[in-house]
């Protein structure tokens, strides 16, 4: 459910203060635990280290992200993959095909 229009978007004031203290071309990362903070137009072009529960995931904010929350770009769960014997065999077959394709491309062509 979205936030009430009467209240407006949640913007962490500490993040805004850190942004104002930084220079426009600064490449340093701003670490934050505030995943619920909404991205504003002032944040475009800056790098944020958004905490996912274990580490800070670096997020470079672009214009298309305005209006979204910082936590949307820092996944909290790691997808290992669906397992099983059949999936493992399929992955090995794909890897073998790719290896053959690389060998064929690297071999010099006889002719001309």
From TrEMBL:
InterPro entries: Ribosomal_uS19 (IPR002222), Ribosomal_uS19_bac-type (IPR005732), Ribosomal_uS19_CS (IPR020934), Ribosomal_uS19_SF (IPR023575)
MF terms (GO), sorted A to Z: rRNA binding; structural constituent of ribosome
Keywords from the named record: Ribonucleoprotein, Ribosomal protein, RNA-binding, rRNA-binding
Biological process according to GO: ribosomal small subunit assembly; translation
One GO CC term, this protein: small ribosomal subunit
Name of the featured protein: Small ribosomal subunit protein uS19
Family membership: Belongs to the universal ribosomal protein uS19 family.
Database matches in PROSITE patterns: RIBOSOMAL_S19
NCBIfam families (UniProt xref): rpsS_bact (TIGR01050)
Function: Protein S19 forms a complex with S13 that binds strongly to the 16S ribosomal RNA.
Alphabetized Pfam families for the sequence: Ribosomal_S19
């Amino acid at each position: 459910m979205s936030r009430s229009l009467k209240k407006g978007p949640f913007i962490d004031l500490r993040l805004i203060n850190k942004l104002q203290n930084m220079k426009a071309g600064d490449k340093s990362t701003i670490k934050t635990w505030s995943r619920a903070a909404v991205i504003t137009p002032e944040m475009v072009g800056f790098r944020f280290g958004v905490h996912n529960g274990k580490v800070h995931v670096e997020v470079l904010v672009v214009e298309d992200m305005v209006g979204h929350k910082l936590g949307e770009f820092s996944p909290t769960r790691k997808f290992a993959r669906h397992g099983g014997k059949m999936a493992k065999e399929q992955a090995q077959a794909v890897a073998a095909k790719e290896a053959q394709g690389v060998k064929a491309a690297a071999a010099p062509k006889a002719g001309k």
